[in-house]
Structure formats: C-alpha cells, structure tokens
C-alpha cells in the first residue's frame, strides 16, 4: 500500500512521503512531529494511478486513529478528501479490480469501517453528507451494500440522525434570515439523502433491495420515519405514507422499489428465509392505527414509470427469490404489503378473474375445434401378396374441402377466434421481452412469471405452426396439434396463482420439475445410455427376433420402462451370453430402480417439506409478481391508481399517499413485539398474551392480530 508517486509542492515531497509511511504504520508520534514541522503536508495527496487522491486523512481513518484524524483536520486537512485511484474506485478500476470499495470520500470510508465518532467529527467539521463518488453513490448507498448488516444499520441510523441535525440547523439559519429561500430549498434538497439516485438510477433503499440487504432495507423504509400521522384518538391513529419511490408503475418506470423487491433474483428466496420478510415488516399488534403512505416513490405505475420501490422489490433479479427467502419478506414490509393488497382488491383481482375466464373459454374452443377437425373414412383395397384385403382408414380432409357445411363454418369461426387470441398472447409476450428485465423470464424460476411466459410462447408458436401445417396439408399436423393442446391446458395453471390454496401447489410442481427432475435425469441419462449400448450389443447376435431389443431405440425404451416398473424382461436366457445378460439386468435394476428412483423420491419429499414451510410467503410473492404484470399490461385508463391525493396542510397536494390502518405502533424490525398498555386500555386477552410464556399461544395471538389488521 506504499505510495509510488507523490505530488510535489515546494520542497516537502520527502516529508509528505515520510508522513504517508508513518500513517501506514500507524506511528502516531512520528506523524505528529512531521505535521508540527510541515503543516501543509496534512492536505497533500498521492498522484499515482492506484492511489490517486489518497490523503493522510484517508490513512488515519483506515487505521481508526481518531486523534490523528482530529490533528489532521485541525491542521487544514480537507474533510471532503476524495481518493479516485484504481485500487479504491470501481469507476476507475472496475468492480473486480478494487482492493476495497468505500465510496472514495473520507466520510464514506469512516462510515464503511463503522467509526461513528469519526463520522460525527467529520460532519461537524465540514464533511458534506451528500457527496457522490464516481458511481453516484452517497454514504447511504455505500452502507446499503455492506455485508455486515448490523454495523451498516447502526451507521445508517447515525447518518440519518446527522441529516436531521443539519436540517434543524438549516431551519434555524433560515428563521434568522441567514439564508434566502432559494438557498434553504436547495440545501434541504441536497440533504435528502434517501432520494438521491446513483448512476444506475437507484436510491439507497432501492440499492438495498437490489442487493438483498434486508436489514438496511428495513432501516431505510422504517415506517416510524416514513409515516405522517394525521390524527390519533386513543389507540387509533391515521397516518399517510409517501409512495413516491416505492410504486413507480404510474410513471412508467422499470426500476421502482416494488419491482426490485419482487423480481430481485427470485432463486435466492428458498435458502434464506430472511428475504421473504422484506414484505413482512408489520407493525406491532397492540392497538389500531390508520396511516397514509406517500406513494410518490413507492408506486410509480400511475405515471408510467418503472423505477418505483415497489417494482424494485418485486422484480429485482427474479432468481434470488427461491434460494434466498429474504425477498419474499421484503414484500411484506409496511407499507409495501398494504400497497399490494390495495392494488389487488381495487382492480387487479377483477381483471385477473376476467382474463382467467376468457382464457378458459379460449382453450375450450380450441379443444373443440381440434376434436372435431375434418376427417373422413376411406375404404381401400390392399394386396397382401396372395389376396386383396379391404381396409378402412381415416384420413384428413384437404383444407379447401373442410368448410363446406354450416357446422364446419362454425368451427372456422372458432379457429379464427383461437388464432386472434394466440396472436394477442404472442404480441404481449414479445413486447414484455423487449421492455422488461430479461431476468424476469427465467424458465426455471417458480415465483416469477418466467416458466409460464416460456410456456405461453411455446403454445403460441405451436398454434402458428399448426396453422401452417393445416394450410399445407402436412402429414404431421396431428403431432403439432397434440403439443399445442398440452401447452395450452398447462398454461391454464398460471391462473391458479391467484388462489392461496392452489398457487403454492404450482410452485411446488415447478420446483420439483426445475430442480429434482432435472438433476435426476442428468445422472440417469448417463446410466441409461451406457446400459442401452451394453444390452443392445448383448442381444445383437441373438438367434431369435427379440422385439424389446431389436434396435437401439427400442432397447432404450425397454430399459426406461423397466426403471418405471411397467416392463418385464423374460428373454435373458435367449442372449448369446445369458450370464452377461443377467449381470447387466441385475446391476441396472440396482442402480436405476433401487438407487436412483428412491433418491428421486427422497429429493422430491425434501423439496415438498421445504416449500410447504414457506408456502404462504411464496404465494404472496407470487401474487406480487402477478399484480405488477397486470399493472404493466393494462392500459392506464383501466388501472386504478393506488393511494390518494390529500388536501391537508403540510402535505404535498401533488403527491400520492397510501392510507393505512395499523394495529399498534410501527417498528422498524420485522419481529412482532407487544407493549404493555395501561390496564384501562388493555383487554383481558391482551393481558393473557403479555403474560404468556408459551410460544404456541403467542403465535396464535399474533395470527389473530394479523387477521384483524387485514380486515381493517
């Protein structure tokens, strides 16, 4: 870490290099002696490529030496010192080339290292909280991607507290007419760290959701700071929640917080249950309160935006939802949970049921058209060598002779209706592929819409190919028709995710197919190919004609049926080498039937038990994907905006707020806690909950309060 090049000023380059070496070794005594003799060295920086901009203040903070930090600042060191060398700047060195990314500024470095006293001291001595590095990240952005969640959350709370203190000072200066109105508004906007976006268009809370940092997500979305209390009457209060950055679908943005949370790497949701709780951060259940949430940053759908917090929470890297249950918990954080419920009950549920009914009619019409496709019976005389035999066969009617009767014309109308629906489905899917994040189309993710979108594309293409085969009288028309019917009816399962009873069931099926079955067949196929070749060679020179082993394909089919237990091999003694045939037969049964099949059953049982534990959270996440999908596809005139504009003093009349009724006080953490109210305000059943020491009773009471909150 020794600097290679140092900016020369006058004749102090040697002292500056000595100061750097002393600071690198944390030699406080030597560093102070150099500073006493050469004060200007406190503000000199390195100029080599790797450490460009690195100042003595950075090194003192690296060592955690608070005394040296104070001495350097008191001697003129810039508290806004910035290091842009390739070793510490991702913009210069790339994400894989940096030694340690901390946001370039001295303040961000102290915050990244968890040095609260140094952070407070730097801010008090002129360090600006809104400084942005080469990637546009502020100190809150840097904390949002920290791996050590507890330290990051503690530091984030300190930074937010310092912002509040500076706002109070700013307000005092404005009241004393030390600042003009324009200066006051400008500085106040700069201090709103939670709304500053980086180069990727992400605010700190969106970045926390995108990186899967549940703890920071909850701190930055703390309802106790976001809510605006309108009134309170006893245990009941009414609040407003700002949805500006949470729901961006109204503005047409694609990286709103809700999208990021719901679509953020859907796969990670299964292995870490914390992610499913970002949507679970519910208030305490001791009393009832109603709040209004500002929807400006939460729900942006009404403005056609795609960068709302709601979208980020839902859409950010769909795969993470299965292997890290954190994201499913993000969807249950206040006010995201209430916002999703509002969207579902206000308009999505009705449109979802209408589309489900329309698709059911479509697939029934398509099935009837296929069932009654034009066929005719033809009698043919075939010679078998000695005699002429009369054979009755069924063949297709040429396309131009298929629509002569009123019934066939009615079938033509059904076929045209089917074709129009398929073209509409294909248009919607292709437009989504172009405009929506490609991660949302993962074939193997079960929470997002990826598998069904892939299935809908297969179905649409199969119907179009069927149309071409029908017009050209292709002999394989029935093959494509069979595939189209299977794809079409399987696609009907998509609408089961609107039901809490059936939605998790489809998730389990997708997980087993995408995980257990794929892994099983990857190993089984190797075994099957090897034994198929061995059996075929063993029976290739048999004296008799053996139907089961007449060629390579039939041999493979016989072994596959043998694995499933639906085939029996009774011709082992007819092989040229019966002992070898028996040995192959026994070893294949042991490996494929006893070992592989039972292993598959065990894997499916484990998947079933794992998914069953979190099926409710997964269904909520599933429904969140569904809500955003319908909100994207419906025209703005058919969407009902979540939230409302309020005409209340102190509130922005152009901002949407979500009105929320809450049972008890809001907590930043996701755990449910109970506060003991005065006896005159505490019902008897609440006293029993507070005094109870049995977890079962506690869970039952929590479920009761949750249902009461939902009903409100």
Largest β-sheet summary: 5 strands, antiparallel
Query: Which structural class do you get from the secondary structure elements?
Result: alpha+beta
Q: What's the helical proportion of residues? A: 40-55%
> Which quaternary structure do these chains form?
single chain
CATH class of the domain at 13-196: Mainly Alpha
CATH architecture of the domain at 13-196: Alpha Horseshoe
Please tell me what the overall shape is.
Answer: elongated
* Beta fraction: 5-15%
At the third CATH level, what is the topology name of the domain at 13-196? Serine Threonine Protein Phosphatase 5, Tetratricopeptide repeat
Q: Mean pLDDT, as a whole number? A: 75
CATH-defined superfamily of the domain at 13-196? Ankyrin repeat-containing domain
End-to-end C-alpha gap: 60 Å
According to DSSP, the number of beta strands is: 9
Count of DSSP-assigned helices: 26
Q: Helices and strands in order, then pairings?
A:
Elements: H1 13-24, H2 28-37, H3 56-62, H4 66-74, H5 90-93, H6 106-112, H7 116-124, H8 139-144, H9 149-175, H10 181-190, H11 204-210, H12 214-220, H13 223-226, E1 227-233, E2 236-242, E3 251-256, H14 257-263, E4 288-294, E5 304-307, H15 309-315, H16 320-323, H17 336-371, E6 375-383, E7 388-396, H18 406-435, H19 450-471, H20 477-491, H21 503-539, H22 552-564, H23 578-613, H24 615-633, E8 644-645, E9 656-663, H25 684-691, H26 695-711
């Amino acid at each position: 870490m020794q600097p290679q090049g140092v900016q020369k000023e006058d004749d102090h380059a040697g002292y500056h290099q000595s100061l750097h070496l002393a600071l690198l070794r944390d030699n406080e005594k030597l560093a102070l002696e150099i500073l006493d003799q050469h004060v200007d060295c406190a503000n000199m920086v390195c100029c080599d490529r790797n450490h460009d901009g690195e100042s003595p203040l950075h090194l003192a903070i690296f060592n955690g030496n608070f005394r040296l930090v104070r001495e350097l600042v008191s001697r003129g060191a810039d508290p806004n010192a910035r290091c842009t060398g390739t070793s510490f700047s991702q913009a210069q060195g790339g994400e894989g080339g940096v030694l340690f990314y901390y946001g370039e500024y001295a303040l961000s470095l102290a915050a990244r290292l968890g040095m609260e006293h140094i952070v407070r001291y730097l801010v008090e001595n002129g360090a600006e909280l809104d400084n942005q590095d080469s990637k546009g990240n502020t100190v809150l952005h840097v904390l949002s991607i920290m791996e050590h969640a507890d330290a990051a959350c503690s530091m984030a709370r300190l930074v937010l507290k310092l912002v509040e203190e500076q706002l109070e000072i700013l307000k005092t200066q404005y009241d004393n007419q030390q600042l003009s109105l324009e200066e006051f508004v400008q500085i106040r906007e700069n201090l709103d760290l939670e709304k500053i976006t980086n180069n990727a268009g992400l605010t700190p809370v969106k970045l926390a959701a995108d990186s899967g940092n549940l703890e920071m997500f909850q701190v930055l979305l703390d309802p106790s700071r976001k809510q605006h209390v309108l009134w309170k009457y006893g245990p009941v209060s009414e609040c407003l929640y700002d949805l500006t950055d949470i729901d961006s679908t109204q503005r047409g943005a694609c990286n709103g917080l809700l999208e990021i949370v719901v679509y953020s790497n859907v796969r990670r949701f299964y292995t870490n249950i914390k992610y499913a709780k970002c949507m679970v951060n519910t208030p305490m259940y001791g009393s009832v309160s109603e709040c209004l949430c500002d929807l400006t940053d939460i729900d942006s759908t009404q403005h056609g935006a795609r960068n709302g917090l709601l979208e980020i929470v839902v859409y950010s890297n769909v795969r993470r939802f299965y292997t890290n249950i954190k994201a499913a918990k993000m969807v249950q954080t206040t006010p995201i949970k209430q916002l999703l419920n509002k969207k579902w009950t206000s308009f999505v549920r009705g449109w979802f049921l209408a589309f489900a009914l329309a698709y059911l009619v479509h697939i029934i019409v398509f099935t009837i058209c296929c069932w009654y496709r034009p066929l005719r019976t033809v009698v043919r005389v075939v010679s078998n060598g000695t005699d002429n035999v009369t054979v009755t066969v069924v063949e297709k009617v040429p396309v131009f002779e298929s629509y002569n009767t009123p019934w066939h014309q009615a079938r033509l109308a059904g076929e045209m209706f089917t074709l129009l629906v398929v073209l509409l489905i294909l248009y919607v899917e292709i437009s989504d592929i172009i405009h929506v994040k490609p991660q949302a189309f993962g074939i193997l993710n079960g929470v997002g819409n990826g598998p069904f979108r892939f299935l809908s594309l297969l179905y649409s293409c199969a119907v179009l190919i069927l149309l071409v085969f029908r017009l050209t009288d292709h002999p394989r028309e029935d093959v494509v028709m069979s595939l189209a019917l299977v794809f079409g009816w399987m696609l009907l399962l998509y609408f089961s995710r609107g039901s809490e009873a059936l939605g998790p069931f489809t998730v389990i099926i997708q997980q087993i197919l995408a995980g257990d079955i794929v892994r099983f067949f990857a190993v089984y196929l190797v075994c099957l190919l090897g034994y198929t070749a061995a059996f075929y060679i063993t029976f290739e020179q048999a004296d008799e004609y053996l139907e089961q082993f007449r060629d390579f394909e039939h041999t493979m089919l016989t072994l596959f049926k043998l694995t499933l237990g639906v085939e029996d091999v009774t011709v082992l003694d007819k092989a040229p080498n019966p002992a070898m045939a028996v040995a192959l037969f026994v070893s294949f049964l042991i490996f494929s039937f006893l070992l592989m099949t039972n292993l598959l059953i065990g894997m499916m049982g484990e998947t079933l038990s794992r998914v069953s534990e979190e099926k409710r959270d997964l269904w909520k996440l599933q429904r969140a994907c569904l809500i955003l999908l319908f909100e994207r596809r419906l025209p703005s005139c058919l969407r009902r905006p979540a939230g409302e504009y309020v005409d209340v003093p102190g509130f922005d009349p152009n901002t949407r707020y979500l009105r929320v009724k809450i049972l008890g006080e809001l907590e930043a953490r996701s755990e449910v806690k109970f506060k003991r109210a005065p006896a005159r305000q505490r019902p008897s059943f609440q006293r029993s909950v507070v005094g109870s020491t049995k977890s079962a009773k506690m869970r039952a009471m929590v479920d009761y309060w949750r249902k009461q909150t939902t009903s409100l």
